[in-house]
Amino acid sequence: MKEKVRIAAGQGFWGDLLDAPVRQVEGGPIDYLMLDYLAEVTMSIMQKQKARDPNAGYAKDFVPLVRRILPTCVERAIKVTANAGGVNVRGCANAVIEVARELGFGGKVRIGIVTGDDIMSRLDELLSRGIELRNMDTGEPLSTVRDKIQSANAYLGAWPIVEALNQGAQIVITGRATDTGLTLAPLIHEFGWANNDWNRLASGTIAGHIIECGAQASGGNCQYEWRSIPNLADVGFPIVEASPDGTFVVTKHERTGGWIIIPGIKEQLVYEMGDPHEYITPDCVADFTTIHLEYEGRDRVRVFGIEGRPATEFLKVSISYSAGFKAVGTLVYAWPDAYDKAQAADRILRSRLNRLGLQFEQVLTEFVGVNATHGPLAGRPSADIPEVQLRVGVRGQDRSAVERFTKEIAPLILTGPPAVTGFAGGRPKVEEIVAYWPALIPKEEITPAVEVLEA
Amino acid sequence: MKVKLTELAHARSGDKGDTANVGLIALKDEFYPILVRTVTADRVKQHFTGIVHGEVERFELPNLGALNFLLHESLGGGGTLSLMTDAQGKTFSTALLRMEIEITEEEAADLRG
Question: Are residues A327 and A275 in the same domain?
């Protein structure tokens, strides 16, 4: 058994720094590269892409990335865990296999695929058996949006990924797997942790939580002493160096920017936290009130003392559904009286929308520079404020009403208050809203499938 | 005396649906009891008047010198439904740090020292 396993985070979301995973692979010793591509609504975007092209529906960026890193990964025996498969895990794996063969690794690399998360085709059968998939936030049953659903996937945990690694996969591609499972699985695989070793499973889960947002653990978006953070232009993404007993050190490659400091790790620990006593994943329930942190050198924070409890009997399901349309228009008003002018323009716009008889579920006005982030807490702006951006958004079920709204912004320039600009981008775009429906499903309803393919 | 929370704490915030979470972290371990005493769920609810329309829940993490707040119904529907600039609640962290709290003269001396 290895004494230390190093897992490097390469992407905090689909769209993160493209070169970060390459730098993790080439910048120093690592054993695993962990890539989290799936945000909550990403699955529905991929579902749409797959409907147009049966070969699409996965994180396209992953394939050229594999082309760049595979030779080094093979040379240094670095394994990759990635939820890049989206709604077409097999399609993603086929593209990766093609790249591996082109690079001369045919027969030399194994690709593991994890499926079984997609329950889209089973929804009616599940609903008919009384599994209501109620919205975890609102309590509404899924039947209220049944005809608008675009994708439905259960969050799978670490164990199917472990199975693929056990079968010799160098790259494991999943669909909707939890971000934390992508980090926990290599640790279970390497250290042979048992499926009821709750403290260690919780440790691996919290290790995953710390690095799943990429550089947010190594100096990015860090409030603590932010001016002092070294060289963010060259920020090093975080790496977990784990031991068999479940303790781990958070660090980053030498000669990279950013920092690994206790206040920064604390900021990431509380990010998107609910009840800290129960951080629920498919693999365990982790207790964030048991986490202890100490320095173990420069850019090294040791994490220990973590306790966990048995996993619940449920898996979370991420369902996406069409929820209408929205559009946002903006204009910029300049000194003098910038805020007064922007407010007057908003009154004129709303009066015109009323006269047109347009109905919306919501109309929201914000004044960027005055209250867009802190609302009334920001207080009244200085009378001398140099400029204010008027930002008006509408949302509704009627696409044509939202469309009509987008045509009322530009006319304000010639028919509203003076000293106005900022309309170079043309009319605002109407966006279809794909909303997120979180639900729970009994674990026994979901059977993950693992296959290991030869490149 | 009154001080702004930003003198005693840093923070990070995020979202889960229409709920924003703010993790408030003491800049020094000694400040944590002050946060526990002064930054109650009720105070936070009152601070975010007009922004947070639901309940405020508070959880304690003495091991990290941190408090976690859940601010329900505060993101205009949340996720893709929200029309807000900050639909993900990323700036609720510094919005909370604007809060003024009452500390003793001794605590103030500690803070300045």
Answer: no
Q: How far apart, in whole angstroms, are the C-alpha atoms of residue B33 and residue B103?
A: 11
How far is A438 from A135, CA to CA, in rounded Å?
Answer: 6
| Nearest in space to A32 (alpha carbons), one of A7, A69, A58 | A7
Tokens of B7: 């003198």
Q: What is the pLDDT of residues A121-176, one digit of tens each?
A: 999 999 999 999 999 999 999 999 999 999 999 999 999 999 999 999 999 999 99
Contact across the interface for A373 and B79, Cβ inside 8 Å: no
Report whether the peptide linkage leading into residue A418 is cis, meaning its omega lies within 30 degrees of zero.
no
Question: Which residues between 18 and 77 in chain A have a beta carbon less than 8 angstroms from any beta carbon of chain B?
Answer: 40-41
The reply to whether A174 touches chain B by the CB within 8 Å rule is no
A228 part of a folded domain: yes
Give the pLDDT score at A48.
83
pTM here is 0.96
* First-last CA distance in chain B: 16
Question: What is the spatial distance between Cα B18 and Cα A179, in angstroms, rounded to a whole number?
Answer: 21
DSSP A102-153: HTT-TTT-EEEEEE--B-GGGHHHHHHTT-----TTT---GGGGGGGEEEEE
Is a pLDDT exceeding 80 seen at residue A231?
A: yes
In a domain, A89, yes or no: yes
Residues of B with Cβ-Cβ distance to A375 under 8 angstroms: 50-51, 95
Domain span at A15:
5-117+155-312
% of chain A beyond a pLDDT of 70: 100
Nearest to B65 by CA among B36, B25, B98: B25
Q: Cβ(A385)–Cβ(A370) under 8 Å?
A: yes
Positive or negative: CA dihedral A303, A309, A315, A318: negative
ipTM over 0.85: yes
**pLDDT reported for residue A40:** 75
